Amino acid sequence: MVEFEEIRQLIGEILQLGDRVGKLEPNTPLLGSIPEFDSMAVVTLISALEERFDLQIADDEISAETFETVGRVHALVCEKLTAKS
Q1: H helices of the chain, where?
Q2: How far apart are CA 67 and CA 76, in angstroms?
């Protein structure tokens, strides 16, 4: 299983959050709450998740709810990897 910390660090890298990455918790809102998390960041995050964890995220799995919180992103990755094995 993927650790939450891996997802938090990846999001921090993509958004270039620096020290703010430590404040990201599972219930931390993303969309509409972090100015750096725009549509381009969503695309970049999807690509990074697919590459780093060797998974595919289908278009119908992409929604505002999917990227609502850091924990939702973590849950998506865990679900995809569980389904893959």
Answers
A1: 4-15, 39-53, 70-84
A2: 9
Tokens of 15: 């958004």
pLDDT per residue over 31-80, tens digit each? Answer: 889 999 999 999 999 999 999 999 999 999 999 999 999 999 999 999 99
d(CA 53, CA 64): 21
pLDDT at 85 over 80: no
Nearest to 23 by CA among 65, 78, 70: 70
Q: Does domain 4-84 have CATH number 1.10.1200.10?
A: yes
| Residues contacting 76, CB < 8 A, separation 6+ | 49, 57, 61, 66
- On whether the pTM is more than 0.85, the answer is yes
